[in-house]
Task: inverse folding
């Protein structure tokens, strides 16, 4: 605990850190916490899982007082990250209690309106924050600390105008903290425009390159893509697994067909209700389900320990998304594996990924794979050419689990 004490963190937060059994500060905490506590504006390159939440929580909790109105605002790109950050702030402020409220879309706005009346700290997504501002249910005039968490993802998702509108609603005299996995030109422009004499901090990637294995399989027959995924899941010795897809449709397609062949899998994407997404994440965190099939938007910002394998069922069009995906594994000294399954439709995206200097990915010989019967497709979808998808126009198949644990296809 002496290591955290040397950073200038106040005693109530140190007590909660000790109870959380944190032994030593992470690199981003060592570098960012001292200037943050001095009141400096900070722009930091830090990925999910690097410990950045404590870095800004230390300042928010020290400077905020219960019942004094909204004094801090944290903007996040996704609903899940908003909930995660709010929960962490609640844990760190256990011995200096504050009213921390998370606001995001996909749920009723009325309870949030009530909670905001007594809030000290607000964590939220840009769209819902703007909604409250327009309704007059959120007052940011007392904000002294503004945090932009995962700024690159917020801008990638098209929130730049929303973010700037929100920033302009905050007092000019404030502390601004910006955290971003990648400092893109757009992120740098945002910092120049809204930060004052900011301290720039870069932390090494939380992923250990020496413990991350990256390879790919080249599947020439598009119809065999799903079969290859099933084969690998059955034969790789894995813990928790994340399978990334580029679209909601493919996410549902993969998850439903995995369950049809007996693989415990769940899908998470932006098309699900918030309650459903919460349920999925609780099951995955509790390891009641071992395979999470997801889109980049849904998965970004989730801090999930124990991921042993990341599969790219689709290759992302943005090379930064590939970096974020593989960064889910090989964390905190653990070994990890990132596997990409290529078909001809993925070649253009894969070329972009291969241009990255930090990517060291090798090809593996495709094993002998038995074709898996595709049993599920999205209702109303009968377009040919989906990777690995066998079309039956006018029919939607689904699976039912038998008591023996086997699956039966009905249509």
Result:
């Amino acid at each position: 605990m002496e290591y955290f004490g040397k950073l200038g963190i106040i005693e109530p937060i140190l007590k909660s850190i000790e109870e959380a059994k944190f032994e030593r500060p992470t690199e981003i905490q060592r570098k960012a916490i001292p200037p943050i506590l001095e009141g400096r504006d900070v722009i930091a390159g830090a990925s999910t899982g690097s410990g950045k939440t404590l870095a800004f929580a230390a300042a928010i909790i020290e400077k905020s007082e219960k019942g004094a109105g909204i004094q801090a605002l944290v903007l996040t790109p996704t609903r899940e990250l908003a909930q995660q950050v709010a929960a962490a702030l609640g844990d760190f402020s256990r011995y200096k209690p504050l009213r921390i409220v998370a606001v995001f879309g996909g749920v009723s706005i009325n309870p949030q309106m009530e909670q905001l009346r007594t809030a000290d700290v607000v964590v939220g997504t840009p769209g819902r924050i703007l909604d409250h501002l327009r309704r007059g249910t959120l007052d940011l005039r007392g904000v002294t600390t503004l945090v932009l968490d995962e700024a690159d993802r917020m801008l990638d998702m098209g929130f730049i105008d929303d973010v700037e509108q929100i920033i302009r609603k905050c007092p000019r005299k404030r502390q601004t903290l910006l955290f971003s996995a990648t400092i893109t030109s757009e992120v740098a422009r945002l910092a120049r425009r809204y930060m004052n004499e900011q301290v720039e901090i870069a932390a090494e990637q939380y992923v250990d390159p020496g413990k991350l294995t990256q390879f790919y399989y080249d599947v020439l027959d598009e119809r065999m893509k799903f079969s290859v995924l099933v084969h690998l899941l059955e034969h790789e010795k894995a813990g928790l697994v994340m399978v990334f897809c580029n679209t909601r449709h493919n996410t549902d397609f993969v998850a439903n067909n995995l369950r049809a062949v007996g693989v415990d899998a769940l899908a998470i994407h932006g098309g699900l209700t918030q309650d459903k997404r919460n349920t999925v994440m609780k099951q995955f965190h509790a390891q009641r389900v071992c395979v999470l099939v997801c889109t980049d938007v849904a998965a970004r910002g989730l801090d999930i320990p124990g991921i042993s394998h990341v599969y790219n069922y689709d290759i992302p069009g943005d090379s930064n998304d590939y970096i974020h995906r593989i960064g889910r594994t090989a964390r905190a000294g653990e070994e990890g594996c990132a596997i990409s399954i290529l078909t001809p439709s993925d070649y253009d995206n894969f070329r972009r990924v291969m241009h990255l200097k930090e990517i060291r990915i090798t090809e593996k010989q495709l094993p002998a794979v038995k074709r898996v019967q595709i049993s599920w497709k999205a209702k109303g979808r009968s377009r040919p050419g989906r990777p690995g998808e066998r079309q039956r126009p006018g029919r939607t198949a689904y699976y039912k689990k038998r008591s023996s644990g086997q699956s039966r296809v009905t249509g």
The chain has two domains: 2-202, 209-410. The chain is about 35% helix and 20% strand. The first strand starts at residue 42 and ends at 45. The first helix runs from residue 2 to 5.
